[in-house]
Amino acid sequence: MSKRDYYEILEVSRNCDDGELKTAYRRLAMRYHPDRNPGDASAEERFKEINEAYEVLSDPQKRRAYDQFGHAGVGAAGSPGPGAGFGGFGDIFSDIFEQFTRGGFAGFQQDPGRGSDLRYRLELSLEEVATGKTVTLDIPGSVLCDACAGTGAEPGSRVEECRTCGGHGQVRMAQGFFSVTRPCPHCGGSGKVVREPCRKCRGQGRVRQNRKVEVKIPAGVDTGDRIRLSGEGEAGERGGPPGDLYVEILVRPHPLFERDGDDLACTVPVGFTTLALGGEIEVPTLQGRAKVQIPAGSQSGTIFRLRGKGIQGVRSRSPGDLHCRVQVEVPVRLSERQRELLQEFAAASGQGGSHPQQESWWAKAKDFLDRMGL
User: Fold this and answer.
1) Contact of 265 with 258, CB cutoff 8 Å
2) 163 and 192 in contact (C-beta within 8 Å)?
3) What CA–CA distance (Å, rounded) separates 22 from 247?
4) What is the mean pLDDT of residues 140-168?
5) Long-range CB contacts for residues 64-73, cutoff 8 Å, separation at least 24
6) Strands (E), the chain
7) What is the pLDDT of residue 2?
8) What residue ranges define each of the domains in the chain, with the CATH number in brackets?
9) pLDDT score for 220
10) Lowest-pLDDT range of 70-84, 196-210, 254-268, 288-302
């Protein structure tokens, strides 16, 4: 028995777009879903057929192959795998749920009245990051109303159970064979009704007030890291649970060091005589001063590694390294005697062997110019 045309199954034209295809699929899948047609074998078979057609036509590559070669072009790809008979039904359910949320019930949370989460961006220096510290933040937000203790009711008045939801905070809404639970529209999901709102907080159970929060910053944090303080966010409405506070770390640029993970890097200007003759230089680290031995004949750009002089990250077992890149500094404002000495050095350098990299480069350049006939 030959298979039916997929476009015919979905009742769409061959040049339909993705939106038309999806709309047709949802309409037919709703009509022939087994839950709506219990015991109807033909409806179940039609539902599987609809899913198979949509699986192929909703995939651009499979659709092109089907348009060119028909069922032979998609082969096994067009056949639904195990459990495919009910594939895509989650999309249908989500559409209906979206209809409910568009009706004004979007944003329902498992904890009605939960306070909002807060975010605080904390700038730290590299030195503070290396050692860690404890900081006190001034957080603007909402706190429990001390007059009503967060109930939202005027002191001396009663908080009653919501009659609409029976104190559960939720009501069940049915549409066809679907049943969806949503927040009670009368009490807003709290399960309680305040007859006489608190005059200080106007029934909200919270008031605006800055508060101090102490945060321990562990050593090794980096830009983008977040520290979560549970329950330090906005106070909930009418005694609801508070939100959380997220402290986002931003490390300020350092005048000497650049950070790469646990490693640090810095550029150290050095006189050419030190590089030529060798010597010892002193460099700064986050732990203090350190000595670096420069071998004679070192080139500008050479990197010297100081093990363990970097930063120990939050999840690292040992600190990183400090990479010092030496950079030759050409002297300026020469005295007459210095100029004479440099001229003597330049004349002596003409004998060869003093600048091996320079001589090698010019040899390659000369060979290139000769080959080009220039």
Assistant:
1) yes
2) no
3) 43
4) 84
5) 66/6, 67/14, 71/3
6) 118-124, 133-139, 142-144, 159-161, 170-175, 178-183, 192-194, 206-208, 211-217, 226-229, 245-251, 258-260, 263-271, 279-285, 288-294, 303-306, 322-329
7) 64
8) 6-105 (1.10.287.110), 111-146+206-253 (2.60.260.20), 258-329 (2.60.260.20), 336-372 (no CATH)
9) 93
10) 70-84
Provide the mean pLDDT of the chain: 82
Gap between the Cα atoms of 114 and 135, Å rounded? 27
Q: How far apart are CA 349 and CA 355, in angstroms?
A: 8
What does the alpha-carbon distance between residue 224 and residue 342 come to, in Å, rounded to a whole number? 51
Q: Cα–Cα distances in Å, from 69 out to 21, 53, 62, 74?
A: 20, 15, 10, 8
Cα atoms in the 13 Å half-sphere on the side-chain side of 103: 10
% of the chain exceeding 90 in pLDDT: 31
Provide the residue count of the chain: 374
Over residues 15-53, the pLDDT tens digits come to 898 888 888 888 888 788 877 788 888 888 898 898 888
